[in-house]
Amino acid sequence: MTLRYPDYFCDFVCTGSGCRDNCCKMGWDIEIDDDTLGYYREHGGELCERLCENIYEEDGAHYMSQEGGCPFLSAEGLCSVQQEMGAEHISEICREHPRFYEWFGDYKEAGLGLCCEEVSRIVMTHERPVLFTEKQTDEAPDDLEFDMDIFTAVRNIRDRLIDIAQDRGFTILQRLALICWCTEDINEALLDEDAERLKKISGMLAIDGFRMEIAIQAENEALTQAEDKPALLMRLFSVFERMEYMNSFGDRFALTRADAEKMLGAEKGFNKEYADLQYELENILVYFLYRYFIKCTRDFSAEERLYSAVYMTLAVRGIFLREYAENGALPDKESRIELVKDFSKEVEYDADNTDMIFEDIQQYDDVRDMLCGLCF
Ligand code: SF4
């Protein structure tokens, strides 16, 4: 098996009792895999009995009851099951979180999910462009079907999109607009299952001059259309405002026209102060592209996956910009790390919420204009 992963993948170490937002306290439904459940049932003993009492079945799968957090989290914020029985006897999801994986035959991708505060710290402090590495492992190939030609073309296109996201000759907003401008072509080629055309697009995107040309075209069009920018910002934020949140995080997206005008009035100052920190949003964009775009090999939803990466990156930038407009200063690094972690936890890790972004993209045919209008 070839395993691909970002260069920071091996830097992650769970901070356990030092974590301020322990994932074991989220109240998420934690699936208990069959092997782990079998061990608890067979092994016996007081702890295994208590574990079995707290596991319930739904649609053939088993979950740990989690109201108010995992009942096996110790007062020190550590996993008592792991302490007593070892990491090999906790559920696979507990052992792997916040790592994520995607399989295509004898090729596997791995990454770290942004909903964890330690991962957010790693991603938000990674100043150099993120690199991806591959190594060979002895894991057996996965047997879920996929089209190899489409997969190869999608992976190549994604590499080019990541190049664009990391092209520091452009501002982060220009890079977002560039991605929006390629989306329609990529989507059409993928829906036609036209691997050759995808290969051609990939080749074009590798050419610096071509990127410059579309960046100029995107900017000219956005400026010619001269959209009502406060209205565009309110439209973007309204998608996130309508979502369901575990706490008051969603209030950040409630925007009056006066709020939007204030934010846009402060944008020039924000861009100047944030100029040297753009790698933060770059890394977030790369994370969304790397993690989610490859999935369109199987579901063909290139448009939704590319635009939603832009929606979410612009939303995070919008949160920072709003704080800047309201306080006259950027939120400090610790606050930005926490905001990104909270955004991921509340939006990215909630399938109903990400579905709302997909629905918005599917509902309107002027998504590119809306997003590009916000980039210039
Ligand atoms: S959120 Fe991350 S650092 Fe915190 S307990 Fe979970 S895995 Fe560990």
UniProtKB/TrEMBL annotation:
**Organism phylogeny:** Bacteria, Bacillati, Bacillota, Clostridia, Eubacteriales
Organism source for this protein? Ruminococcus albus (strain ATCC 27210 / DSM 20455 / JCM 14654 / NCDO 2250 / 7)
Q: Which domain of life is it from?
A: Bacteria
The protein depicted here goes by the name Lysine-N-methylase
